Amino acid sequence: MTQFIPGYSRACASLDQQLIDTKKRINPLDQRRLIRLETPVEPISALEWLQAQRMLPRTYWRDRDGKAIRAGIGYAVKMPVNVAEVSPLLKTASELLKNCDGDAAIMSAFSFDQQATQWGGFGCGQMVLPRIELVEKNQRHVLAINLLLEPGQVDAELNRARKSLASLQYPTGLPELPMLLGQPVHHPAYNGWQDRVKQLLQAFKRGDMQKVVLSRCSEWKAAHALSPWRLLADWGQREAESFRFGWQLNDRDAFVSCTPERLFQRRGLLLRTEALAGTAPRSEGKAEDQALAQALLNDSKNGHENRLVLEDIHNRLQPLCQQLEHSQDMSLVRLSKVQHLRHTLRGVLKKDSDADLLQTLHPTPAVGGVSRENAMAWLRKHEGYFRGWYAGAAGCIKADSSEFCVTIRSVRIKEGSLQAFAGAGIVAGSNPQAEWQEINAKTSALLSLFKQEDPCLSPVQHPMQAIDQR
Ligand SMILES: C=C(O[C@@H]1C=C(C(=O)O)C=C[C@H]1O)C(=O)O
Ligand SMILES: [Mg+2]
């Protein structure tokens, strides 16, 4: 028998009826708990759906293989993250989720540096259980509504939920991306970059540190409003095997990432993570591309960048695991404009604690450095701008599983401008110019999605240069 899949307005009507029924069956003095109501719905593009909605924040998550897509609006539970509070917050979150039937997930994001508190309204992190969600899983689309019922507050919560439902809009498509105007402003500019790399090379010689990931924020003005959801749709088509994450605070401020890097995936006690570091450009010519890949696999500087990440992750995870193993060989992750080296790790945890995993792993030396403490202290003092959610941890937490990506390849869309972030692992043997070209290559997939007023200065270099010029 084929299952009946209601159209959008019938799905909304079904949820509304479920809310009315919930009111009848719930004792208003029951203890605090989460309830999730769901209904199947006709296939709708989650990004187009987000574009049409009015409630805030708007959030989006897609895992790397596209098996789970979650678009959320508003919130039933909102937990702004404070520096000292990450662990208790995550514990509260997992307790709430454990007592909730259904597929509830808390969307979460944490900034790169948990000691730094400000990044406009994003702060040093956010955790939200969306009020309404459109979820796509195993080719099924589900519309869901989450409720946090507290003793004596049940009616108020049900009324808020019905009001949210009544505000839903039907999707009507995604607006075109704007043209990027003029030249970008880079923080730091090339001279500042060169100075910092040289300073780091001295520090490595003195033995103070072994690796620091230095980054840049590049800012363009846009000709008209830039839809984060259109950007994620186009970017995701270009980089199919990437996590996609988006958080729109309001119509003037959003953060999105289309990133190849997994921080961790936890299913019960089973853990998967990876060391992603070491980069070469890609070439359109097949033979040249293959030569670049082979050169990357054989290159000692890139191998060293990757090994430092692998060793650090392995050493830090060891005390949390009953078993832990990593791939012997490096594999290649091939994106549209760059390719990376990757080692994968698998383990069995002693405890199913996301708080422990986040604190242990983040930030890995793929975005921070070795030693973590010295690299972070150096970056706070010398990087020269504040990363905010770039190179942060973003993902979703469920009752029995969780997954986080590392938000490299990310942008903030703020008041008519686009800020694009990119970093490169600086180690002994790094060359300032080659590392600058590496971050240009990392930004070039994003830039290729836009028309540019002044494209002649777009930062694309001949592919062979990045490795040869060291
Ligand atoms: C920091 C970024 O990427 C990281 C740095 C890499 C490198 O230097 O080779 C490769 C992948 C990531 O570990 C970024 O893209 O912003
Ligand atoms: Mg590198």
Describe the protein.
The active site is at residues 211, 261. This protein folds into two domains: 8-166, Anthranilate synthase (4-Layer Sandwich); 181-468, Anthranilate synthase (4-Layer Sandwich), CATH 3.60.120.10. The chain has 470 residues and is α+β, with helices and mostly antiparallel strands. Strand 7 (132-137) and strand 8 (140-149) form a beta hairpin. The chain has helices at residues 8-25, 46-52, 86-98, 154-166, 190-206, 228-238, 286-298, 300-317, 354-361, 372-382, 432-447, 465-468, and strands at 33-40, 58-62, 68-73, 77-80, 106-110, 125-129, 132-137, 140-149, 180-187, 211-222, 243-250, 253-259, 262-267, 270-281, 321-326, 331-334, 338-349, 369-370, 393-397, 401-406, 410-414, 417-427. It is globular, with a radius of gyration of 23 Å. Helix content is 32%, strand content 33%. The structure holds ligand ISJ and magnesium ion.
Please write out the topology.
Blueprint: H1 8-25, E1 33-40, H2 46-52, E2 58-62, E3 68-73, E4 77-80, H3 86-98, E5 106-110, E6 125-129, E7 132-137, E8 140-149, H4 154-166, E9 180-187, H5 190-206, E10 211-222, H6 228-238, E11 243-250, E12 253-259, E13 262-267, E14 270-281, H7 286-298, H8 300-317, E15 321-326, E16 331-334, E17 338-349, H9 354-361, E18 369-370, H10 372-382, E19 393-397, E20 401-406, E21 410-414, E22 417-427, H11 432-447, H12 465-468
Antiparallel strand pairs: 1-8, 2-3, 2-11, 3-7, 4-6, 5-6, 5-19, 7-8, 9-10, 10-18, 10-22, 11-12, 12-21, 13-14, 13-20, 14-17, 15-17, 16-17, 19-20, 21-22
Helix pairs in contact: 1-4, 2-6, 3-9
The ligand C=C(O[C@@H]1C=C(C(=O)O)C=C[C@H]1O)C(=O)O binds at residues 213, 215, 276-279, 305, 340, 366-367, 408-409, 421-425, 442.
Pathway: Quinol/quinone metabolism; 1,4-dihydroxy-2-naphthoate biosynthesis; 1,4-dihydroxy-2-naphthoate from chorismate: step 1/7; Quinol/quinone metabolism; menaquinone biosynthesis
Family: Belongs to the isochorismate synthase family.
Protein name: Isochorismate synthase MenF
